[in-house]
From TrEMBL:
<dbReference type="GO" id="GO:0046854">
    <property type="term" value="P:phosphatidylinositol phosphate biosynthetic process"/>
</dbReference>
<dbReference type="InterPro" id="IPR050725">
    <property type="entry name" value="CysQ/Inositol_MonoPase"/>
</dbReference>
<dbReference type="InterPro" id="IPR020550">
    <property type="entry name" value="Inositol_monophosphatase_CS"/>
</dbReference>
<feature type="binding site">
    <location>
        <position position="73"/>
    </location>
    <ligand>
        <name>Mg(2+)</name>
    </ligand>
</feature>
<dbReference type="InterPro" id="IPR000760">
    <property type="entry name" value="Inositol_monophosphatase-like"/>
</dbReference>
<dbReference type="Pfam" id="PF00459">
    <property type="entry name" value="Inositol_P"/>
</dbReference>
<dbReference type="InterPro" id="IPR020583">
    <property type="entry name" value="Inositol_monoP_metal-BS"/>
</dbReference>
<comment type="similarity">
    <text>Belongs to the inositol monophosphatase superfamily.</text>
</comment>
<keyword id="KW-0479">Metal-binding</keyword>
<feature type="binding site">
    <location>
        <position position="122"/>
    </location>
    <ligand>
        <name>Mg(2+)</name>
    </ligand>
</feature>
<keyword id="KW-0378">Hydrolase</keyword>
<dbReference type="GO" id="GO:0004441">
    <property type="term" value="F:inositol-1,4-bisphosphate 1-phosphatase activity"/>
</dbReference>
<feature type="binding site">
    <location>
        <position position="119"/>
    </location>
    <ligand>
        <name>Mg(2+)</name>
    </ligand>
</feature>
<protein>
    <recommendedName>
        <fullName>3'(2'),5'-bisphosphate nucleotidase 1</fullName>
        <ecNumber>3.1.3.57</ecNumber>
        <ecNumber>3.1.3.7</ecNumber>
    </recommendedName>
</protein>
<keyword id="KW-0452">Lithium</keyword>
<feature type="binding site">
    <location>
        <position position="242"/>
    </location>
    <ligand>
        <name>Mg(2+)</name>
    </ligand>
</feature>
<dbReference type="GO" id="GO:0008441">
    <property type="term" value="F:3'(2'),5'-bisphosphate nucleotidase activity"/>
</dbReference>
Length: 308
């Protein structure tokens, strides 16, 4: 009798399958044209696509894995309503993921050790402006406090979507990992939350090329696809659901994601009440030395403090 795949592999396989369905839901909302925009706060929007995609994802996980902890971005009553259409309950598990060899350290993980961090639509501001290439769905599988598996899903990639996934200690899939340019340094940063602190950091990194795009998931994609050496965001602002999946995929590829001090963020359920990434986000490509990069960041930070 074949051994049942490890829980972490099943969760990742479910993440890929449910992301495909949530992506279709997002495309359908965009096609209908009525986005149902709600302003949650300053520079913080929500649409019908956010709400419906989250309901699909959370309901599917609750159905298959009732004891797993789930933290999703949207907390309003509509988004929390898990009475969803039958075709939104996804039970399929992506077979390619199930064939993965699960790392020994993750083979005996139980549901109560797992927290899934979900951003049903990362890049909502860009979505409302029609900048659909910036949009991703983020599903991060975390064991205890560590991001170990994740899916970054692009709903509008070639009009039908694609899932980029990673399992730390096992591998990546859905994309071809590419090297960043050797002739120049390229850094990716925020499009919609640009402020003086970020500008000062960017000035300290010069000479380099700066790319400003929306969505934390999208920025990490720039690293994975060889378009940037690092993702620089020196301010508080993004949350754990923005970074759990990107960190897992990036680490599975050999890269790193930390705060300004070079420390990893904790993704335990205890962080649900305060999910803010208070000390920024700094992510690097597999071929770009994260330790050396953080020394550069520390130097820039000290000069910035002195100038203030």
């Amino acid at each position: 009798m074949a051994q049942r795949p490890a829980l972490v592999c099943r969760l990742l396989a479910s993440s890929v399958s449910v992301a495909h369905k949530a992506g279709k839901i997002i495309r359908d909302v965009m096609q209908k044209g009525d986005l149902g925009i709600i302003e949650k706060g300053e520079n913080d929007l929500q649409t019908e696509a956010d709400r419906s995609a989250q309901r699909c994802i959370v309901a599917s996980f609750k159905n298959l894995y009732p004891n797993v902890n789930i933290v999703a971005e949207e907390v309003d009553k509509i988004s929390q309503n898990l009475d969803v259409p039958a075709d939104w309950l996804i039970t399929d598990l992506d077979p390619k993921i199930l064939d993965l060899e699960c790392p020994k350290s993750l083979q005996d993980v139980t549901e109560d050790q797992v927290t899934i961090w979900i951003d049903p639509l990362d890049g909502t501001s860009e979505f409302t402006k029609g900048l659909i290439d910036h949009v991703t769905i983020l599903i991060g599988v975390c064991v205890n406090d560590e991001a170990v598996a994740g899916v970054i899903y692009q709903p509008f990639w070639q009009n039908h979507g694609r899932a980029l996934w990673g399992l730390v200690g096992s591998g990546i899939g859905g994309f071809e990992l590419k090297e960043p340019p050797q002739t120049k340094k390229v850094y990716v940063t925020t499009r919609s939350h640009y402020d003086k602190a970020i500008e000062q950091f960017i000035d300290g990194l010069k000479p380099c090329e700066i790319i400003r795009v929306g969505g934390a998931g999208n920025k990490v994609l720039y690293i994975l696809e060889g378009k940037a050496h690092a993702y620089v965001y020196p301010s508080a602002g993004c949350k754990r659901w923005d970074t759990a999946a990107p960190e897992a995929v990036l680490r599975a590829a050999g890269g790193e994601l930390t705060d300004v001090h070079g420390n990893k963020y904790s993704y335990s359920k205890d962080n649900e009440k305060d999910p803010l990434n208070k000390y920024g986000v700094f992510a690097t490509a597999p071929s770009y030395n994260h330790t050396e990069f953080m020394k550069l960041i520390c130097d820039i930070q000290s000069k910035t403090v002195k100038s203030d």
